[in-house]
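I am still getting used to backbone structure tokens and would like to learn alongside you. To get us started, please write out a protein record for me. Once you have written the record down, we can walk along the chain together.
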Amino acid sequence: MSKYESPDYQIILTEGNFEIRNYEAFYMVTYEKSQKAQTNQSGRNSAFGTLFRYISDENESREKISMTVPVIMETEQDQMKMAFVVPKEKWDAIPKPLDPNLKITQFDAGKYGVLSYRGSWSSGKEQQKAEELRDWLEKKGYSVTSGYKMAVYNGPFVPALFRHNEILVRVA
């Protein structure tokens, strides 16, 4: 069990490393910026650093915010997004971000297909796992209704063998 808070969901179906989950809505602080002028890795490092400063106290209230898991990443066209889940105790008064690249957003409640896997992550691996998830969902009769998101549960200093990652997508 993780020592960090994570979003609430109910498992509807499990088959190997695949699941269908019903997530409750939750709040996130999301970094959004165009990727055109940066490499994928430098963009992720910049996003993570900005989000880390926000939870460290670089917010309008100057308060520290507890770390949560997972860190959620998504790429839409040329926009790279990375988000920290806001702890439930802050939902009534989420500190306003000072950085203009940060926004308070909501993860919509609903049904999601999920593929869990161990190891390191990369753009190529994300794409491969998204394809595996899509194929499994099609076999189960689900249709994809959103873009794919990557959920990272461990920091870079955790050995790859022990890392927990997920690819998730909203389904109908």
Q: What stands out?
A: DSSP finds two helices and nine strands in the chain. The domain at 9-25+108-172 is CATH 3.30.200 (Phosphorylase Kinase; domain 1). Helices lie at 40-56, 123-140.
